[in-house]
Amino acid sequence: MRSQPMTAVADVEESSRWYRRVLAATSGHGGAEYEQVRVDGETVLQLHRLAAGHHHGAIAAPHRPAGNGVAIWFEAEDFGAAVRRIRGADAQITADVHLNPNAGHREIWLRDPDGYLAVIAEP
Length: 123
Known about the structure:
Helix content: 10-25%
CATH class: Alpha Beta
CATH architecture: Roll
Largest sheet: 4 strands, mixed
Strand order of the largest sheet: 1-4-3-2
Order of helices and strands: EHEEEEHEEE
Number of domains: 1
Strand content: 35-45%
Distance between the termini: 20 Å
């Protein structure tokens, strides 16, 4: 089993560009309503337009803040390269590179365009 989290976003194409830049990812689907963000051919995140219901109904309440209580965690094989990409993307960093004393690895915390907390950690 593997996780493929899905987030509800205001602008799928903008969020896709942001994640592709920050994660060195590619598009696995593309479009204004749904996207698969892929790294090394594996889907690591799905993006779904907030207002689109499709066959399953809406996945988020539009009047509630996006991502409240959610952290989307990514492990980067080349942590240094990930940090350089993040800095180049002018991302909103909420906790700069630091050592997580519990996990024993370095990580950086940032907010995506919709306010979701994204964490990039080294292995």
